[in-house]
Amino acid sequence: MNDLANPAGVAGKLRKERSLLPTGERLARLRRWRNIKDQLARYGIGIFGLGVIFCLGLIFVYLFSEVVPLFRSAAVTQGAVYAAPGPIDGVRTAQVASDRHNSLGVRLTDAGHALFFSPETGEVLEQKILPLPADVAVTARARAEARSRTVAIGLDNGHVLIAAYGFDEVFRGGARQVSGSLEYPVAVDGDPLLDVAGDGTAVRNLAVQRGARGIALAAELADGRLVLVRFEETRSFLTGETTVERKQYELERPPSNAAITRMLLDGTNRSLLVGDADGQVHYYDIARPADGQVRDSRRVMQDPNAAVTSMEYLLGSVSLIVGGSDGSVSQWFLVRDADNIGRLTHIRDFESHAAPVRAIAPEYARKGFATADADGTIKLHYATSERTLATYGGIGTAPRALSFGPRANALYAVGEDERLHRLIVRNPHPEVSFSAFWQKVWYEGRSEPDYVWQSSSATDEFEPKFSLVPLTVGTIKAAFYAMLFAVPLAIMAAIYSAYFMSARLRGYVKPTIEIMEALPTVILGFLAGLWLAPFIENNLPAVASILLLMPLLMVAFGFIWTRLVSAEWRARIPVGWEAALLIPVVILVGWLSVSLSPLLEVALFGGDARQWLTDVGITYDQRNALVVGIAMGFAVIPTIYSISEDAIFNVPKHLTQGSLALGATPWQTMTRVVLLTASPGIFSAVMIGMGRAVGETMIVLMATGNSPIVNFNIFEGMRTLSANIAVEMPEAAVGGTHFRILFLAALVLFVITFVMNTVAEIVRQRLRQKYSAL
């Protein structure tokens, strides 16, 4: 009972009993307990290490799972097949289209019927009749850009009818109901039949386009004349009344004598393209129709005997897709030459057909298109990625009409046998290809191929540009200049503070530098963007002076101190405190450089250093790589310094003392013993700092212009992978191509850092093995 009431006494009694044990048994107990602790530490560290690796694997798997759908191939499968809708026999199909939900389609015929039908069954739901005279025949037909839903029909009496079909949606009882409509956007005195020949000559070829400036019509007549008609709409500012003014012009024939096979007008009504049976395309500049003339003629067929059998503009009416009688499919658009004259330029080729190309169908909202040949084979292509995505050969006959659904998830084809094929298209990410990501691409409106990242624009006709090269180069550029600034300062500071500095001064310096690591990078980015960038721009001579004079004057001061100052004065400074003497030097150099900057700018750079750089061909942006290098360098220095300093300081003392005892100087000991022994740790510090610089987001986001350019000019900005993800991810539609490409960018960043760290670890292990014997 007394023992239970006195626990302290019990513990003391147990200790006394253990002390009475034989020495060998006591040591065995200690070894067993130490072994238990060693095993716990071993397995605990191993388990948590495996947990880290497992988490990294999960990150990789998640990123990869979001990226994989990008590379799934497109597919075209057969949907419904039925006789072309309508009770009329012997009538040929001119065009077929559908609404955005694929719930209502329209079939336009050469006889002037507009048949609205169910795409699932082919049942005619509504029928409208175009006002075509009974005693005339249709001799030409054309369609404008698919989004305008406008068609033109040419007649053998020299008249043209322009019609626009539509799909009206209403919601009744919680359900969507779609009905068809038909209108005539151009009429003269209420008559939609437009006389373009003037003398009853038949229309042989036709082109129509509906744009912001009105409707334009180009017609080739049977007697060889080429006529351009413009209907320009003008809205009164006061009354809001719209008036339509008709202007008609006659153009010269193309320089070749070959028969015209296809004509196209662009959306701005400034260009007319004419294809002929000789395999040529002729470009007419009709910005001033009265002076309209052929500006360029190009042979677009490689086979000298091939003819242009089909031509269509892609979305935006910039890129021209040409199909030939030899089965070739190619892309062309106008590129300005040195004289600012547009020239038809060959951009790329796509997978050819085995038979002549008979129809081309562009997508409504992307730069994709479908081609069909005389054998009924259909191919899906995408312009920017330069890919042929899928092939379908189930139609069996040459197509009379071919068109996409507005969402590009359905394709409608009517063959010569007047059977309508509704094809199901799965093509969610056609923009993706190796060339689109990593090679130069010739984009619309540019004079040459280039690396460009531009994921969005203000227009629906925009061509997305998803090159990852500018982002990857920007990431490397930002990290390079940050490391160029940080590594020398951090490592030299680590060498001095660990080996030459007094213990007391080291106790102040090391914690001060390490606490810099706690400074939020958003604060560094904020200061860099709003203070440092304008300061550098306004004091370029001062920055250059500091970079040149600071090291020179520090070396000069060291020479003066060691060679010209007496030993008595040097003895007054405690050993290891000499670095404190450099503080006034640093302050003085900085003050003098800034103070003399205006004078240097006037004397050496004509009063404006930035303009001087521009004059010599160097682009200068206010927020540039120099600003990022300094700001990110301050963020990286504490990491590199701390790890390097620990590695140098922890070099065994017997190595340094032995070196000094053998007569080596402290500097020889540092360079030939200490640095070699600490090199694995120093290398690890540099690579860890590099990893942080590569993945840094806020500094590069706030301190650069976020311009995705490909160069290493220190006076220009950049856009990095991490900053791009931070900027654009909130705006990307979940599951869309842009969204998944941002995940691909994250995966690229992950792989870069993983490879970098793996190589660093291999090098570190080899350094460790090489110098472990010291």
TrEMBL record:
Coiled coil: none annotated. Pfam families: BPD_transp_1. Its main location: membrane. One of its GO terms (cellular component) is plasma membrane. The chain crosses the membrane at residues 40-64, 478-501, 513-536, 542-561, 581-605, 625-643, 673-694, 739-760. It is found in: Cell membrane. It is a multi-pass membrane protein. It comes from the Bacteria. GO terms for biological process: transmembrane transport. Residues 472-760 form the ABC transmembrane type-1 domain. Keywords: Membrane, Transmembrane, Transmembrane helix, Transport. Belongs to the binding-protein-dependent transport system permease family. This is Phosphate ABC transporter permease. It comes from Alkalilimnicola ehrlichii.
